[in-house]
Amino acid sequence: YKQAKEGYEEQLGPDSEKALNATRNLIMATGISRGERVVKLRALVARMVTVLGEENPVTLEGLFHLGGMLERNKEHEEARKVWDRCYAVRTKLFGEDHRQTLASVASLAGVYYSLKEYEKALEYYERALKGFEKMLGKTHPETLLTVMNIAIVYDEGFKDYGKGADYKTRALQGYEEQLGKDHADTKRCARNLAICLENAGEKPNLRKILVDYPHLLSESWNV
């Protein structure tokens, strides 16, 4: 990344799209602390906005990555502001149903969950789910991940284990159809569903999952 950055800066100038994008890649790959990475990326994105404009694809990608870094650094409110800005620009450029816009919607849902604003998280995840189902289909990995995230809002946020189990069952059916029962993602989803069913006190359904996924029998369950 360093070599690419230096090459683009020499050939195209330090403020060219390719040079700025290579700088972003270098920041993301450099072995520095998360806090230092946030500082560098924030400064770079400000420069991108000034030089390229907020609607430039390189700037938008920088904004999206900055939001992710802030979220991982537990700066949830700052991440929300950055992703909200990114969402507004993507909506203006691409419309509500574009994949990049939907990615922003899903990211905002995640940050609202981190902020414990569960109603807002659910609202945004449901919007993302509707869009992903329409664009990608009901068994696409991105769609199924969104279904699982809705389940998490219900069972870990609202403590509504029954509703959480409904969504995890829906996700498991999708993973089974798309990947098969032996895939690691399917097995992980089955375990998450089993935990939710145990919390909900749904012993008959829990027993069925344990029969369908016998590898789970190595764990202790209240059946």
Task: Give the topology, please.
Layout: H1 2-12, H2 17-29, H3 34-52, H4 57-72, H5 76-94, H6 99-114, H7 118-136, H8 141-157, H9 161-179, H10 184-200, H11 203-212
Task: Offer a concise description of the structure.
This protein has 223 residues and is mainly alpha-helical. It is 79% helix and 0% strand.
Folded structure, characterized:
The protein is 79% helix and 0% strand. The model has no long low-confidence stretch (mean pLDDT 95).
What is the mean pLDDT?
95
Given as residue ranges, the uncertain stretches (5+ residues, pLDDT < 50) are: none
Q: What is the terminal-to-terminal distance?
A: 54 Å
Radius of gyration: 21 Å
Record keyword descriptors for this entry.
mainly alpha; 223 residues
